[in-house]
């Protein structure tokens, strides 16, 4: 397998829907638009990565990064999903890969309806199905690790000490191509039944706000180091 | 199976660690304390529910509620995990249940280290392994649906129209007992290597803030309905 060629995925095109990415319910909330999917992914600090171990599901929160149509997760070479994903010797031809489901969710608001039944959340989510494979190409591995750092704070990877050989060797990186992907979202107010509209219950939306509290510098920060611009712009 | 008796789980005791709940890495971040687990669960708006479908993992975000040592998720009787969890006829003796992993994560801060390698997030997460089973007892189902609403806005279930017979029939509820459970958390600043301490990179923590924006009342709210106290107290 060629690991350094970017898959051909024309910008602006939509992902093809599959049996797994068409929801059984609320299909009108689903979208396969690439730009919408990328935006939801890029805004998230963590994903929830699901895999199967001994026949049972495991869901773990983890950092991730995106480079075009590829997602990357990383971990110690000793961690379970990384060990399960393939040969530790990096023989990619023998790597069957690890079937995963990678999900990202933003909760944007609480939807309070007159009826308990119609209570809901406003949210945006992305679900990615696919086979995660260990990255063995050293250049791709470095690119992936930079993307993981820049995913959380854009611009940060260039303003920190890059991984050295020992750290690179201790870190395993998995790649998951964006291929079988869907987004789902809900916006707006409650959808109460017509006969409930005059009930004496407050209804509406509680929007959730996300932001940052003041920076907490390391107490042992070397003198003269100012807060970098990419943090002031957060 | 008796569905209405609460399992005997002494308050304050810890969950027993199992092979699945002892992390392979960073074991010092794990805790099995019931109160700590409950607090992390109760603060979350959604969980990520993992199950296995056709041998592959599926991870979906969903609302949940907690009643003591039981978690509840709900969905349309037509949705995939609900259908997979058991007999639609509610014959619980014949219900093999659905192996699930239910995970909740809060991201509390971005940890910026001098080295790319030591970048991290401060977080609190809970992972629950177990078998989800359909709730067939009508009283337990009502209790579960109230808990789902009150989980998001405490006090709300008593201030909305309860589910009617048709809504109850259209809603399936799954129960997952808190038995095989662990929490994991990271707090504090970056853990840079001693030889990196004088590097000219800003390091520290960017704390994430969560809050609410002003309420958005439904435009068709009946006149004279004031904002309830449980929303003013959010």
Task: Describe it.
Two copies of one chain form a homodimer. Chain A contains five helices and eleven strands. Chain A has 234 residues and is an alpha+beta fold. Chain A has a single domain, classed as Pnp Oxidase, Chain A (Roll), CATH 2.30.110. In chain A, strands 1, 2, 3, 4, 5, 6, 7, 8, 9 and 10 form a ten-stranded antiparallel β-sheet that branches. The interface between A and B is large, with 97 and 97 residues. Strand 10 of chain A pairs antiparallel with strand 10 of chain B. Chains A, B: It comes from Streptomyces longispororuber.
Give a nutshell description of this structure:
Two copies of one chain form a homodimer. With about 230 residues, the first copy, chain A, is of the alpha+beta class.
Keywords, please?
homodimer, 234 residues, alpha+beta, Pnp Oxidase, Chain A, 5 helices, 17% helix, 35% strand, globular, disordered N terminus
What would you call the quaternary organization?
Answer: homodimer
CATH superfamily of chain A: Electron Transport, Fmn-binding Protein, Chain A
Based on the coordinates given, report the CATH architecture of chain A. Answer: Roll
Structural domains of chain A: how many: 1
- The beta-strand count of chain A equals 11
Instruction: Enumerate the spans of chain A where pLDDT stays under 50 for 5 or more consecutive residues.
Output: 1-8, 87-91
β-sheet strand percentage of chain A: 25-35%
**Element order, helices and strands of chain A?**
EHEEEEHEEHHEEEEH
How far do the termini of chain A sit from each other? 39 Å
Greatest interface: A-B, 97 and 97 residues
| Largest sheet composition of chain A | 10 strands, antiparallel
**Helical content of chain A (DSSP H or I, runs of 4+):** 10-25%
Query: Could you tell me the radius of gyration of chain A in angstroms?
Result: 21 Å
Mean pLDDT of chain A: 90
**Shape assignment of chain A:** globular
- State the CATH class of chain A: Mainly Beta
Task: Provide the CATH topology of chain A.
Answer: Pnp Oxidase, Chain A
The SS-based structural class of chain A is: alpha+beta
Number of helices of chain A: 5
């Amino acid at each position: 397998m060629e690991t350094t060629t970017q898959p051909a995925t024309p910008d602006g095109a939509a992902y093809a829907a599959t049996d797994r990415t068409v929801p059984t319910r609320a299909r009108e909330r689903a979208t396969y638009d690439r730009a919408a999917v990328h935006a939801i992914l890029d805004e998230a600090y963590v994903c929830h990565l699901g895999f199967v171990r001994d026949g049972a599901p495991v869901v773990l929160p983890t950092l991730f990064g995106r480079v075009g149509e590829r997602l990357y997760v990383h971990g110690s070479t000793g961690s379970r999903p990384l060990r399960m994903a393939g040969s530790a010797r990096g023989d990619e031809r023998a790597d069957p890969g690890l079937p995963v489901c990678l999900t990202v969710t933003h909760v944007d608001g609480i939807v309070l309806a007159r009826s308990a039944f119609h209570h809901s959340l406003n949210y945006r989510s992305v679900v990615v199905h696919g086979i995660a494979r260990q990255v063995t190409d050293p250049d791709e591995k470095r690119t992936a690790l930079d993307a993981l750092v820049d995913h959380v704070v854009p611009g940060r990877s260039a303003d920190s000490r890059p991984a050295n050989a020992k750290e690179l060797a201790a870190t395993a990186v998995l790649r998951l191509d964006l291929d079988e992907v869907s987004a789902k979202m809900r916006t707006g107010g409650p959808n109460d039944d017509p006969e409930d509209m005059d009930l004496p219950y407050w209804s509406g939306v509680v929007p959730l706000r996300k932001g940052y509290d003041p920076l907490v510098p390391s107490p042992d920060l070397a003198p003269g180091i100012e807060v970098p611009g990419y943090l002031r712009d957060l």
